[in-house]
């Protein structure tokens, strides 16, 4: 497994205080919202704050954020692309 994806899963579990979920249980290609991990809009806001705090990435609007939060894999690619553009 990609070490960055593993780190991201751990940060998601810690940030959202997902007590019944272990990072290794999260399917990196499953949806974060709805049927996948089951996150909601409050979780999305917490993830946006986590991105800014830990990775220095600002999500400007919902149109930019929606595809980035599709899955853990999509989020990892979004972070890498933003960091490469700096």
In terms of structural class, how would the helical and strand content be classed? mainly alpha
> Which word captures the global form?
globular
Order of helices and strands: HHHH
Largest sheet: none
Estimated share of beta-strand residues: under 5%
Structure explained in plain terms:
It is a single chain. This protein is mainly α. Helices cover 58% and strands 0% of the residues. The chain has four helices and no strands. It has helices at residues 3-16, 41-55, 62-68, 72-85. Helix 1 (3-16) crosses helix 2 and helix 1 (3-16) crosses helix 4 (72-85). It is globular, with a radius of gyration of 12 Å. The relative contact order is 0.18. The model has no long low-confidence stretch (mean pLDDT 93).
Question: What is the topological layout?
Answer:
Blueprint: H1 3-16, H2 41-55, H3 62-68, H4 72-85
Helix pairs in contact: 1-2, 1-4
Question: Key terms for this structure?
Answer:
mainly alpha; 4 helices; globular; 86 residues
Could you write a compact summary of the structure shown?
The chain is mainly alpha-helical and 86 residues long. The chain has helices spanning 3-16, 41-55, 62-68, 72-85.
């Amino acid at each position: 497994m990609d070490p960055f994806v593993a780190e991201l899963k751990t940060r998601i579990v810690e940030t959202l205080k997902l007590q019944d979920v272990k990072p290794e249980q999260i399917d990196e290609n499953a949806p974060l919202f709805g049927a996948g991990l089951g996150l909601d809009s409050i979780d999305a806001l917490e993830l946006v704050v986590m991105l800014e705090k830990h990775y220095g990435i600002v999500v400007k609007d919902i149109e930019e954020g929606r595809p980035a939060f599709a899955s853990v894999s999509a989020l990892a690619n979004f972070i890498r692309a933003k960091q490469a553009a700096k």
